[in-house]
């Protein structure tokens, strides 16, 4: 199987420590991270992905807002430049230890954090990065 991810979730995964919007969201996120940890490939998608799934039943899911689309655009640009490959809908990607390490280094330095501007989780993610990504689940 393949994990469907929108581009900005490539950044969110780097600092995921088991916190989320709701217990259902966190339980689902844990399952997605478990799949990735076992080596499942990623397919980049446009719009809501496997992480968003529990949020789609809300009256106005934030994952459909223009701000999420803009985060995807910025993350795709920055992560693509870092990894030297396109990050766009339909592109497969494997998140191996080497690519995760490169992405975490770039995230911690701020190189790939433009997509995080205005995100409610930005302070938490910054603290996780500052701690050396201690307690992350991927």
Notable characteristics:
138 residues; mainly alpha; 5 helices; 3 strands
Describe this structure in words.
The protein has 138 residues and is mainly α. It is built from five helices and three strands. Strands 1-2-3 form a three-stranded mixed beta sheet, with helices on one face. It is globular, with a radius of gyration of 14 Å. The two termini are 18 Å apart. 32% of the residues are buried. The model has no long low-confidence stretch (mean pLDDT 96).
What is this structure, in a nutshell?
The protein is mainly alpha-helical and 138 residues long. The protein is built from five helices and three strands, in the order βααβαβαα.
* Beta-strand percentage range: 5-15%
Structural class from helices and strands? mainly alpha
How many H/I helical runs?
5
Tally of strands: 3
In sequence order, what are the helices and strands, one letter per element? EHHEHEHH
Largest sheet: 3 strands, mixed
**Estimated helix fraction:** 40-55%
Shape: globular
Indicate the low-confidence ranges by residue numbers: none
- Beginning-to-end CA distance, first to last residue: 18 Å
What spatial order of strands do you see in the largest sheet? Answer: 1-2-3
Mean pLDDT: 96
How much is the radius of gyration in Å? Answer: 14 Å
């Amino acid at each position: 199987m393949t994990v469907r991810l929108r581009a900005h979730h490539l950044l969110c995964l780097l600092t995921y420590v088991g916190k989320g919007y709701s217990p259902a969201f966190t339980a689902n996120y844990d399952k997605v991270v478990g799949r990735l940890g076992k080596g499942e490939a990623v397919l980049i998608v446009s719009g809501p992905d496997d992480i968003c799934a529990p949020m789609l039943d809300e009256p106005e899911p934030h994952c459909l807002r223009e701000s999420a689309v803009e985060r995807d655009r910025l993350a795709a640009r920055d992560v693509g430049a870092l990894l030297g490959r396109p990050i766009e809908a339909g592109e497969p990607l494997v998140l191996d230890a080497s690519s995760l390490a490169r992405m975490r280094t770039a995230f911690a330095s701020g190189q790939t954090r433009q997509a995080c501007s205005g995100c409610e989780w930005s302070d938490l993610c910054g603290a996780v990065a500052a701690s050396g990504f201690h307690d992350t689940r991927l």
